[in-house]
Each structure stands twice: as structure tokens, then as C-alpha cells.
Amino acid sequence: MNYIRSAIDRHIGQRLREQRLSHGLSESDLADRLAITTTQLQLFEYGLKRIPPHHLIRTAEIFGVSIGTFIEDAPMQGLGTLRNAVHMPRSCASLRTRSLPFDA
Asked: Can you give the pTM of this predicted structure?
């Protein structure tokens, strides 16, 4: 099987591994809680496979952290970091929408 490592997948995987180790969980403990194999978890941690959003959400719940813990400061080639993208919705929340008249 060919795996392509992207910088963001490596970053998220590294953060995932850091959280797992800081919470004292083994690979098999976390894999069991996520209902995946230890091989899948290893692929996620080494950035060889992209972690699906539902696993990332569940992992954040297990560790009691926000999803931002995993993606904050992740590199985005040519676009700065994901920190900017994570904060963008908050910036846009202050924008007001207005009704536009429609021609009948």
C-alpha cells in the first residue's frame, strides 16, 4: 500500500501521539476506545493515513480537549497555518447579514 505523508497529517498525528502519551494510554488502549486497530492508530500517528473527522472528534472527547489541540499551528503550504483558519469563523461571526429585496 502506498502512503503519502502530508505535513498536516504528520502534525495532527504528532499531536495525537503527544496526547496519548501524556494521558498514559497505550496504542492498544486508545485504539480500543476508538474501535480501530492498533495498525490504524499507528498510521494516524505517523501521518501515513489521514485521521477521519469522527475519529478526531472522538479522540478530543477522550482526552477532554478541543479539536483545535490537534490542528492548531499545523502547516498549510503557502497559506500560513491552520490557526488562522480555525479563528476565521470567529472573525466572520461578527459580520451581520442583511435581507436583500427580491424582485417578484
From this structure: 0.68
